Amino acid sequence: MRMLINVPETVVADALRGVAAAHPELTVDVDNRVVVRRDAPVADKVGLVSGGGSGHEPLHGGFVGPGMLDAACPGEVFTSPVPDQMVRAAAAVDSGKGVLFIVKNYTGDVLNFTMAAELAEDEGIQVASVLVDDDVAVTDSTFTAGRRGTGATLFVEKIAGALAEEGAPLEKVEAIARRVNESSRSFGVALSACTTPAKGSPTFDLPAGELELGIGIHGEPGRERRAMMTSREIADFAVDAVLEDLRPDAPVLALVNGMGATPLLELYGFNAEVQRVLGERGVSVARTLVGNYVTSLDMAGCSVTLCQVDEELLRLWDAPVATPGLRWGR
Amino acid sequence: MRMLINVPETVVADALRGVAAAHPELTVDVDNRVVVRRDAPVADKVGLVSGGGSGHEPLHGGFVGPGMLDAACPGEVFTSPVPDQMVRAAAAVDSGKGVLFIVKNYTGDVLNFTMAAELAEDEGIQVASVLVDDDVAVTDSTFTAGRRGTGATLFVEKIAGALAEEGAPLEKVEAIARRVNESSRSFGVALSACTTPAKGSPTFDLPAGELELGIGIHGEPGRERRAMMTSREIADFAVDAVLEDLRPDAPVLALVNGMGATPLLELYGFNAEVQRVLGERGVSVARTLVGNYVTSLDMAGCSVTLCQVDEELLRLWDAPVATPGLRWGR
């Protein structure tokens, strides 16, 4: 086991202590596993809360800060957080203007966020929820009824976060989050399996010289296995899978995402191929983000997420953001 | 070979095309392998140029932009760039106020940057050079006479970049770069070897269940191999190795760096242990940066770099920076 850990049981708590030490701009409740922007609740602002299993960092804790999430609830590795975390997060960020839950479509997350929404409403917090289900690879998979939520989560959190930061009411923040999800599609590819601390060995068996097309971010099976392909061939396959479902008639945001262990050098090379295919298919790219954003521990591989944008979505994408994992601005 | 590439021969060129597509704020000369901030040369500003073998991304190309480097010259993977690249970079960024070469201490880089400085001077460009040699693990190693240059390069580029952005003259920018290097020390640990595209197999043999203490960023041998250690034990060893040499009597900047394939979840957990040791040793930490900044392709592992700071260095560290790999500001 080649892991930089103490024992599997404390991996998430250890990481949260490390986040607290590195990021004084965040309030980290290590015991209750909630990460909150320090100035929460922000007056007259809808609070954005997300969360999910750990192992996908910087998602979600690394996206807490001005212009994006108000709070994140990390579960155990690849395991949904519990409703208590979500209710605490909602209470910590609610200014009285309501809270939006951003939920990736996995059975455990959906159940727990649904229960948390009811509990929070009981406490007088107005809650809306948006489900992210952008992964076109498969319908119904391990952990999922319907499509899985992957890279589009970053687009939803960033764009809805920007609108919330402007003071928009809950129904508008919810509506734009829904619109971003509906405008986004993803497809992922694994070049290696990932290893969870608890298991200590690869979560699935991927022989050397093969790759898995349509992989999930927990190593859930994809569409098919093939002999190793070139970056060019992978880009063709992944982008076409996305475009077949999205059929954009306006410019897109492109997220060329690493699964964790693929070097940035390779990811940028892959981006060149993604841009080539998009050009060949007549798709105009408004903005491109390349890096490890929605990861799967130490998995080698990549995913492509496209989000069709109009002027409003593009303006909100470009708005300032200041989080550990995503940061730009004036 | 689990790589996201076309063929080994085009890895660097492919990556540069991908950088160009993702970052319109940079000018990328793919043929001549020079990455330059688009607004270069910036009037009345010293130009900062660095470079080195590829495979350490985001170092150096990802650190080009306002507040940091003006240009970077990427070589082949783990291979020095050539003088022609450096001269082109110097010419592209020289406003007449001179250029600072920031050189990691590897034999090839030192030779080529020295030659480039002479050639640039012949073209009427005033050049100063600073050598980064912060790695306390070993003296004289593969590729190196003296200590290797590793994580401190980020501190040198950021702090000298901030001073240059303020309009300081070349001798002051050079002096502060030298001071940052002299105030910094690093120590790295490998949990796995890395694989270069050209070789296609691990650059060295590290049996499962062992780690290498004092590894170099090209997989050069370190101090010793041991049976796998916990995060806590690794932090004790690495931080003590740095402190033994640095002996800080003022606050430090801490870079808790991933070698590439170690998940952010583990790196943050490791950071918690690094902060614990520093606290136990009575060292005050002014700022902490956690992430994959000075990498070694797909190597699993980490390094710790500390830089002792005074008020001026801390102010320059905090100054705005806007590059693909490091970004904060007002």
TrEMBL record, chains A, B:
Its EC number is 2.7.1.121. Residues 7-328 form the DhaK domain. Transmembrane segments: none annotated. InterPro entries: DhaK_1 (IPR012736), DhaK_dom (IPR004006), Dihydroxyacetone_Kinase (IPR050861). Keywords: Kinase, Transferase. Pfam families: Dak1. One of its GO terms (molecular function) is phosphoenolpyruvate-glycerone phosphotransferase activity. This is Dihydroxyacetone kinase subunit DhaK. It comes from Streptomyces pathocidini. The gene is dhaK.
